[in-house]
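In response to the reviewer comment on reproducibility (Comment 2.3), we provide here a single inverse folding case reported in full, input and output, so that an independent group could reproduce the run without further information from us. The structure tokens appear first.
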């Protein structure tokens, strides 16, 4: 870089607008978008580890797409090239590829190609980029305000992770203002600026989630406000209103917001919500949508969703459309609102959709001939019998007669389903009666035809195969349990999940599959479990591996603070996590500190008090009546022990504990019956001395003599290698703050 280049860069940095100067330069300065860049998220880990794959950032203006790309440029060791799709073409793409090949060949350095407004590339330009993304010559980072699934080459989309950025929250925008007013280098930290709270409220509200719009308004307010004698720039509400008077509405008539807004409008009218319909109508009119386009959609809706429930709907909407053409805007908003309100409050019926059922029948069924009696009799009546057998309806009472009008292959087919709404209710019974008569006539052969004379993130195939193989190793009962937990958890792809009792990894591996852009943490209590999970995880790509913490539940928060400071979880999941915990309330209170504001705890807890009794598996005739009764009494005493944390609770106690700590919980208790095989290992576990707690045999010994216990053990030995029905009671819990 020459002295002239340095001088030019310095001028650009100092003379640039405030919004450009205040662009975050590191992840620590970045505000908002915690769902993709927050602590522990996949994208943050990938940036910090410099292990990026191709990415597409999709979201409204002013949400940080380009800023994220620049942060990546500041942190990566890869060569970084930036182009704008509006100003660049195939020539610039080829130059970037040539540079990337040179960097790889000479320096073994990766190249990141950032394409701003990537959706502006035409198909030929995107196709020119595709092979080099596919073979790894460049890592693509695209930024777009349009839905990439519609506006970007499907092949590029399938090879990229897509991250959607949302409009910034009010708290984020307030933080942007604070950051700007305190920054001495790029912001207004060296100036004395006082800004009234109501002025901040106005700026934040009207900025509508756009940080760039907020900073532009703040800059205008500061730069145009005179400095007082004491050197203070005072921003009042009046100044703020002058700086940003009208909310900027994101509305591209060819883009996503256009289609999303008209969709919300139509669905509100269809749903008979006049308030919501007027709101979405106002959004479109405010943004400058063509009223004729709105009227066109209303005319369609009048037939599609109102139909014969109110035959006047089409008439009213057409009259309003004609009135609009006469008066124009702005008065034309009256008939536009009238048509919207009429349709919103009209009775609804979509019975005209029967036409599309008929179309489907035409497409799928073999084309059937027109029934003979419905053919034109004027041409072939005498030669082929066309028209013969036709019954003229006006010759009959009520001008109707039961005869078939469908081809023989579709006899009895129903397309039109009259609703019981509005006017259509009056024809419902009439149509039903006539159909019944037609069916009866068909059965009797009356009025039928006479015989004639003559149908996104890219998939890592290796990872997917590994996960599927690992998940498939679970037995049927465990597989059902796993799937039920994740149905209750319903995680998003970008969520952070903590498996609080990972054990064998049953839930951990499924979590990795469910949150590919998030992250998974697994808590295990034994070194052997930790080693097993680490060994299995080593087969995964580094960024996809779970963070494994070997610790007790009591020490879990401290371990997380040590290894992952600031990380909060969207879901805490677990199987039998609370089973043996003596102080379940204390554990839940610790878990609550690990949850995000809208997070949830999802557990599958076996209730030992209601579990399978072993004496029910054995044939009673193997023992004397006295011994069998003593066996029953000894086993039931195990589950009546009030000082054993393993059995001294049931589902009602558990629900009460959740309520005590302030967690709102939904609980379902179900019995699961599965077949299990009684192996010699299982029998040894029942009767040999236990490690963590007394075994079944040791607890029976408190009531049974040695000889009685020996007889019982010999009786159970007969179950070896047999399949038995095992009943377990599971409490499914979903709890939130």
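Designed residues, in position order:
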């Amino acid at each position: 870089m020459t002295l002239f280049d340095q001088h030019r860069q310095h001028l650009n940095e100092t003379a640039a607008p405030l919004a450009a100067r205040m662009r975050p330069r590191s992840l620590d300065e970045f505000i908002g978008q915690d769902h993709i860049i927050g602590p522990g998220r996949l994208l943050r880990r990938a940036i910090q580890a410099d292990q990026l794959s191709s990415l597409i950032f999709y979201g409204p203006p002013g949400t940080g797409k380009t800023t994220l790309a620049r942060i990546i440029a500041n942190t990566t060791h890869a060569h970084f090239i930036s182009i704008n799709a509006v100003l660049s073409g195939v020539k610039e793409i080829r130059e970037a590829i040539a540079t990337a090949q040179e960097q790889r060949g000479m320096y073994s350095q990766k190249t990141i190609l950032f394409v701003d407004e990537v959706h502006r590339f035409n198909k030929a330009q995107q196709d020119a980029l595709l092979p080099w993304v596919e073979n790894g010559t460049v890592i693509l980072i695209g930024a777009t305000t349009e839905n990439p699934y519609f506006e970007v080459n499907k092949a590029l989309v399938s090879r990229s992770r897509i991250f959607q950025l949302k409009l910034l929250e009010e708290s984020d925008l307030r933080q942007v203002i604070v950051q700007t007013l305190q920054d001495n280098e790029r912001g207004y930290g060296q100036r004395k600026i006082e800004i009234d709270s109501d002025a901040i409220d106005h700026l934040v509200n009207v900025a509508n989630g756009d940080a760039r719009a907020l900073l532009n308004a703040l800059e205008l307010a500061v730069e145009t406000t005179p400095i007082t004698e004491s050197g203070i720039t005072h921003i009042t509400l009046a100044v703020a209103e002058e700086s940003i008077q009208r909310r900027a509405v994101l509305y591209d008539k060819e883009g996503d917001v256009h289609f999303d807004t008209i969709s919300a409008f139509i669905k509100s009218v269809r749903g008979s919500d006049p308030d919501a319909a007027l709101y979405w109508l106002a959004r479109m009119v405010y943004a400058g949508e063509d009223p004729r386009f709105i009227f066109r959609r209303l005319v369609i809706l009048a037939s599609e969703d109102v139909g014969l429930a109110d035959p006047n709907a089409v008439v009213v909407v057409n009259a309003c459309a004609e009135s609009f053409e006469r008066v124009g805007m702005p008065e034309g908003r009256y008939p536009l609102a009238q048509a919207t309100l009429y349709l919103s409050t009209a009775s609804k019926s979509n019975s005209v959709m029967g036409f599309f059922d008929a179309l489907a029948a035409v497409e799928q069924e073999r084309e059937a001939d027109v029934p003979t009696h419905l053919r034109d009799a004027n041409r072939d009546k005498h030669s082929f019998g066309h028209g013969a057998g036709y019954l003229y309806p006006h010759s009959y009472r009520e001008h109707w007669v039961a005869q078939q009008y469908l081809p023989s292959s579709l006899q009895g087919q129903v397309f039109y389903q009259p609703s019981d709404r509005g006017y259509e209710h009056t024809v419902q019974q009439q149509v039903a009666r006539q159909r019944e008569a037609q069916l009866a006539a068909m059965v009797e052969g009356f009025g039928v035809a006479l015989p004639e004379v003559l149908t996104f993130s890219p998939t890592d195939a290796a990872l997917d195969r590994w996960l599927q193989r690992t998940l498939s190793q679970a037995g049927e009962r465990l597989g059902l349990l796993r799937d039920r937990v994740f149905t209750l958890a319903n995680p998003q792809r970008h969520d952070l999940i903590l498996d609080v009792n990972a054990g064998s990894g049953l839930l951990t591996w499924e979590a990795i599959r469910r949150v590919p852009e998030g992250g998974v943490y697994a808590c295990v209590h034994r070194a052997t479990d930790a080693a097993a999970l680490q060994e299995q995880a080593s087969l995964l790509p580094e960024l996809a591996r779970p963070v494994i913490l070997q610790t007790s539940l009591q020490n879990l928060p401290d371990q997380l603070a040590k290894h992952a400071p600031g990380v909060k979880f969207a879901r805490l999941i677990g199987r039998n996590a609370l089973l043996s915990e003596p102080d379940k309330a204390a554990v839940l209170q610790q878990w609550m500190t690990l949850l995000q504001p809208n997070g949830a705890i999802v557990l599958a807890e076996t209730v030992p008090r209601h579990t399978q009794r072993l004496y029910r598996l054995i044939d009673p005739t193997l023992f004397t009546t006295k011994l069998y009764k003593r066996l029953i009494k000894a086993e039931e005493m195990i589950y009546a022990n009030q000082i054993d944390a393993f059995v001294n609770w049931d589902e009602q106690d558990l629900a009460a504990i959740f309520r005590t700590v302030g967690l709102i919980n939904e609980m379902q208790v179900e019995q699961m019956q599965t077949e299990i095989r009684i192996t010699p290992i299982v029998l040894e576990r029942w009767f040999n001395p236990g490690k963590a707690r007394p075994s079944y045999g040791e607890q029976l010994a408190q009531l049974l003599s040695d000889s009685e216990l020996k007889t019982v053990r010999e009786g159970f030995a007969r179950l070896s290698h047999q399949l038995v029905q095992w009943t377990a009671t599971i409490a499914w819990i979903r709890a939130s703050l």
